[in-house]
Design a protein that fits this description.
The structure holds 2 protein chains of 2 kinds. By secondary structure, chain A is an alpha/beta fold. Chain A contains 17 helices and 11 strands. The longest helix of chain A is centred in the N-terminal third of the chain and has 26 residues. By secondary structure, chain B is mainly α. Chain B folds into 2 domains: about 55 residues, no CATH class; about 240 residues, MetI-like (MetI-like fold, Orthogonal Bundle). The chains are: A alpha/beta, B mainly alpha.
Chain lengths: ~450, ~325
């Protein structure tokens, strides 16, 4: 009898606990600690520095200052790029979201379509300091054209061609001004005996690959979506653009086939920083990684990523990081204050250097490098040679399908196969069908 | 607590603590509910962990759950059978991809299960007769099973790198290759996947078969060797038939695990998964998360569930019938 009551008691307790656990889950505050009067924001930051820890070190004092000024605490989590999009999706799906989140600005229109984010309408925009403080091209990435954006620019980025000055001088070369010059230089700088390659490509990273699909196609005056937002992947300009980039490894043989396994941009940048390659095409946030790997400012130079002679002078997409507020936040005012603070001139100046970002504010000067020529190059690319990625809801599908198709084509080239224009077209057709099936 | 008084008092009249000698039959209320109470946690857990997610998954497969609706599921319009049509239209990119992935997964599963079973059986039989150090070797063999999957597979990922990996280095030192083989991209990816999955799985086969071997009486082998049966003959005529019930379950479990393996490709390949290593659960994950189309993803999952149920049912039916005939 004693045993029975004991068992019954245990069973009842166990059930009680499990029930309480379920109940707790439902009641749990999605914004993390909104109970009582104390204001705590949850902020998901993307990886901008040399590592997740580095980001945390850089951001912590900045966030502490915000808490001192406003009394609002900020709970920071830094999330790597491989996980960020999935984490945001999960947050949207479950409603268990942070208050404020960093997004890749190319996702802005796609995320806007989910209706999970707070539109910066007149009031909200006013609360963060008005839209006039931003560079217009940067702000334009915040959402679909003609709508209230659901994100505002935080860090500006642009692609540039980094080159090793010593290697170029030793070979008697000038930094390239056209695609053709870039390829010839790269071939001259590919020295198998020294295990030196002309270029490093993040050829296994779908996010990097898709950017080059976009830029190379843009140089061919080709678009990935028509005016109605329908995919037009198989156009000749797109096919030739993608093939031109693949040919760096395939036909021109200026990149190590091993690059097909480089699944993020850091790996190719590290090859450049450790002087295994003469050139790398990367966004300006490469600076912090290059310096962290022991290369000094002044040892490398940057020129705009060149287009073929006679082609459209597009050297980058309007890259960068935007800041979004989840619509279901329980601390809307605090969140807007935080966005205002992060996009203030003082904060931007503080963060511009450690995160190597271009200013998103009008009239602000780049502070990420002491190399005036480099700063001027990136600023020029960002302001005059950048084209925004398609601002359509299916943009994220474009990134994943075309990017992954390029991963596979690079893998085929690296393992000894051949990729022809027809193969590229077939792969892009598949990607296009996948996008069509998803919308 | 054990002071017994007033045995005749009706059960309901007084608080229970005073009637310690009363048997459970005097408390029909608790008696009737106790079994349910004891079962409740299990039923609740089963509902929460299996039934509800499954039902939600099936429901998802009939709605148009794209990025436009994931913030508010209830607003998602019905898709009818459309998600299934997309997944099964093999002339279309999505259906074709699913079919290819299915083919890869079938090949992967059959080879991995066969290899795991052969290795597990060989090791279990080899370690059956007692000898010095047997315990140590048995323990050693269990390491892959005890190691957290993530750590083990990640180590394989390092070893299989082209320029810095141990595998290429060793092959090169032994003059078996030029040391520049790609293991994680291209067609070798399937080989790598099979090796890693077998490495992870075979110890389970080993463990199960070893346990099964313990129940075979030694007399059988003695009698057989008196009759002049060799090792192979003994294995075929005694070990194999005796292990039949174990094998039936083992092969089925191995197959189900392998077919729905997600960790191995996910950790081994990261975001750069090669077509040759595109296992079906991973494919479905990509179809759902990369294109934000959870409806189609759910439809693919349901199709996978149906396929596995058919295979399992057929397997049990066939093997069951044979047992009865035997």
């Amino acid at each position: 009898m004693r045993l029975r009551s004991l068992v019954a008691a245990v069973a009842a307790t166990a059930m009680g606990i499990s029930l309480a656990a379920c109940g707790g889950g439902d009641k749990n505050d999605s914004s993390g600690g909104g109970s009582g009067g104390d204001q705590t924001l949850t902020y998901w930051a993307s990886n901008q520095g040399t590592s997740l820890d580095n980001d945390k070190e850089v951001l912590t004092p900045v966030l502490q200052k915000f808490t001192q000024d406003t009394g609002i605490k900020v709970n920071l989590e830094v999330i790597g790029w491989n996980d960020l999009q999935t984490r945001i999706q999960t947050a949207i799906t479950s409603g268990q979201a942070p208050d404020v989140v960093n997004i890749g600005n190319t996702w802005a229109a796609s995320l806007q379509a989910t209706d999970a984010f707070l539109p910066f309408d007149g009031d909200a925009m006013g609360a963060i300091g008005g839209k006039d403080k931003f560079v217009p091209t940067a702000l334009a990435t915040g959402g679909k054209e003609g709508t209230d954006p659901t994100s505002v620019p935080l860090y500006g980025l642009a692609y540039g061609l980094y080159y090793n000055k010593a290697m170029f001088a030793a070979a008697g070369l000038q930094p390239p001004k056209t695609w053709e010059e870039m390829v010839t230089d790269a071939q001259k700088l590919t020295v198998p005996a020294k295990k030196q390659w002309g270029m490093a490509l993040a050829a296994g990273s779908y996010t990097e690959n898709v950017h080059f699909a976009f830029i190379n196609a843009a140089q061919n005056k080709a678009d990935w979506f028509d005016a109605d937002g329908k995919p037009t992947f198989t156009g000749d300009g797109n096919v030739q653009g993608v093939l031109r980039y693949l040919d760096l490894m395939q036909k021109d043989k200026v990149a190590n086939p091993s690059n097909a396994q480089y699944d993020n941009g850091t790996k190719s940048v590290n090859d450049f920083a450790t002087k295994k390659v003469a050139m790398v095409i990367n966004q300006n946030n490469a600076d912090s990684s290059i310096v962290a790997n022991g290369m000094k400012a002044g040892e490398y130079g940057v020129v705009p990523f060149p287009a073929p002679s006679g082609a459209e002078q597009v050297a980058s997409h309007v890259a960068g990081i935007n800041l979004s507020v989840f619509k279901n936040t329980k601390h809307k005012d605090a969140a807007l204050k935080f966005v205002k603070y992060m996009t203030d001139e003082a904060t931007q100046t503080t963060l511009g250097k450690p995160f190597s970002s271009l200013p998103v504010l009008k009239d602000a000067k780049p502070v990420f490098t002491t190399d005036a020529a480099e700063a001027a190059t990136f600023q020029d690319v960002y302001n005059t040679k950048s084209k925004p990625l398609p601002l359509v809801p299916a943009e994220d599908q474009f990134e994943s399908t075309v990017g992954k198709a390029m991963n596979s084509m690079f893998a085929k080239i690296a393992t000894g196969g051949t990729v022809t224009a027809d193969d590229v077209k077939a792969a892009l057709k598949t990607a296009q069908d996948q996008v069509a099936a998803g919308s | 607590m054990s002071v017994a008084t007033q045995e005749a008092t009706p059960a309901a009249a007084k608080p229970a603590k005073k009637k310690t000698k009363r048997g459970p039959e005097h408390r029909p209320g608790l008696n009737r509910w106790l079994p349910y109470l004891l079962l409740a946690p299990a039923v609740l857990a089963e509902l929460l962990i299996h039934i509800i997610p499954m039902v939600v998954g099936i429901w998802m497969s009939f709605i148009k759950l794209t990025k436009f609706f994931i913030a508010n599921w209830s607003a998602a319009p019905s898709a009818g059978l459309n998600n299934y049509k997309v997944a099964l239209d093999f002339n279309n990119a999505v259906g074709e991809g699913l079919l290819k992935s299915f083919g890869v997964t079938v090949a992967f599963s059959l080879i991995t299960v066969a290899l795991s079973w052969v290795l597990g059986m060989a090791a279990a039989v080899a370690l059956q007769p007692p000898f010095r150090g047997r315990g140590i070797i048995r323990t050693f063999f269990l390491v892959p099973y005890a190691l957290p999957a993530y750590a083990g597979i990640l180590t394989w990922n390092f070893m299989l790198q082209r320029d810095t990996g141990a595998v290429n280095h060793v092959l090169n030192q032994l003059h078996l290759s030029d040391g520049r083989t790609f293991w994680l991209i291209g067609s070798n990816a399937l080989v790598s996947l099979i090796v890693v999955a077998t490495w992870k799985l075979w110890t389970f086969a080993f463990l199960t078969l070893m346990a099964g071997l313990q129940s075979i009486p030694g007399d059988l082998y003695e009698a057989a060797s008196v009759d002049g049966a060799g090792n192979l003959r003994q294995w075929r005529n005694i070990t194999l038939p005796s292990l039949r019930p174990v094998n039936l379950v083992l092969v089925l479990v191995l197959f189900l695990w392998t077919f729905s393996d997600f960790n191995t490709p996910y950790v081994l390949f990261g975001t750069a998964q090669p077509p040759a290593g595109d296992l079906i659960t991973f494919h479905i994950y990509n179809a759902s998360f990369l294109t934000w189309n959870f409806g189609t993803g759910a439809a693919m999952s349901v199709l996978l569930l149906i396929f596995l149920m058919i295979v399992t049912g057929a397997y049990l039916l066939v093997t069951g019938r044979r047992s009865r005939r035997a």
